[in-house]
Structure formats: structure tokens, C-alpha cells
Specification:
CATH class: Alpha Beta
Distance between the termini: 34 Å
Structural class: alpha+beta
Radius of gyration: 14 Å
CATH architecture: 3-Layer(aba) Sandwich
Length: 167
């Protein structure tokens, strides 16, 4: 079982992190209209899955704003999705207030199945760990980054370099 820390405290993750070079795990996440979105919806695009505990926290807020800003310089063939356990209504409110237009917020609120499939479901908090996954146009995982301390931001340069090698 993998672990991360949250403010220095060890947290246990359910599931197994997918391996780079393997087919990305299928998922069903809920959009702001309560419709399900799946990995297949992004076929033919480079998909960046930005996983955060909650958009209503300072680090998550900064991270999604940063990816929204970085998206402007990327190809239209790149889709950036932010996944969290926040309710879709809360995600829509936050995105509207933050002016987020290049990142799509999707929710894993129903069961946490996405977090478990990607090995980032924090048992103790019922939240997702901070992680980023980059999936190529054929649905193969090409890059993964699990942030060891949940209260820290990811390595943006490493994520963006991984994306740029695929476009």
C-alpha cells in the first residue's frame, strides 16, 4: 500500500498507481451537469489529469489556476482535467469564481472509484491525493507524479515537459 503525508502525517492510499507505458485505467467522473465523462471522451487528445484533494483549499486553488494559465501555451490537442472529490456544483462554482476556462473540473464524489483505480484515494480523509497523470492520444499513461506531501504543489516543469513530448 502506498502512502503520502498530509501536513506531515502519514496517509494510506487505496489502489495501485498505474505504471507508465501501460494503458491508463478506465474511469467515469461526473461533470457539472451530472453527466459521466470517461477516458474514451478524450481519445485522440493528450490528457492531463490533475488530481487534487479539494478546489476550496489554497494549494489546490493555486495549482488549478497555474494549469489553466499554462494551457494557453499548449496545443488544442491537449485536454486538462482536474479531478477531485468535490461535488460537481462546488466545482462549477469555484471554476466560475476563479475564471477557469481551460481546465475541465470533474468529480469523483459518487464512489471514489477513480481515486482507487489510479491508486490515489486517501483512506483517512476520503479525498484524492495530489497527483498528475499524462496520457497520450492512444490512452497510454506516459507520465505520473504523485506528490509525496499533499500540501505541496506538483513539479509543473516536469509535467509540462512530459506533455510537450507528446504534442
Amino acid at each position: 500500500m502506498s502512502t503520502v503525508t498530509f501536513a506531515g502525517n502519514t496517509m494510506h492510499l487505496q489502489g495501485t498507481l498505474p505504471q507508465e507505458g501501460q494503458k491508463a485505467p478506465a474511469f467515469a467522473l461526473t461533470d457539472k451537469d451530472l453527466a459521466l465523462r470517461s477516458l474514451n471522451d478524450y481519445a485522440g487528445k493528450v490528457l492531463v489529469l490533475v488530481c487534487v484533494p479539494s478546489l476550496d483549499t489554497p494549494v489546490c486553488d493555486m495549482e488549478v489556476r497555474r494549469f489553466n494559465s499554462e494551457a494557453q501555451a499548449l496545443s488544442k490537442d491537449v485536454a486538462i482535467v482536474c479531478a477531485s472529490r468535490d461535488l460537481p456544483f462546488a466545482q462549477a462554482r469555484w471554476c466560475g469564481a476563479a475564471g477557469i476556462s481551460a481546465v475541465e473540473a470533474l468529480s469523483d464524489y459518487r464512489s471514489g472509484a477513480f481515486g482507487k483505480a489510479y491508486g490515489i484515494y486517501i483512506e483517512e480523509l476520503d479525498l484524492l491525493a495530489r497527483a498528475v497523470f499524462v496520457i497520450d492520444r492512444q490512452g497510454v499513461l506516459r507520465y505520473r507524479q504523485l506528490v509525496a506531501e499533499v500540501t505541496k504543489e506538483p513539479d509543473y516543469a516536469a509535467v509540462l515537459n512530459a506533455v510537450k513530448t507528446l504534442i
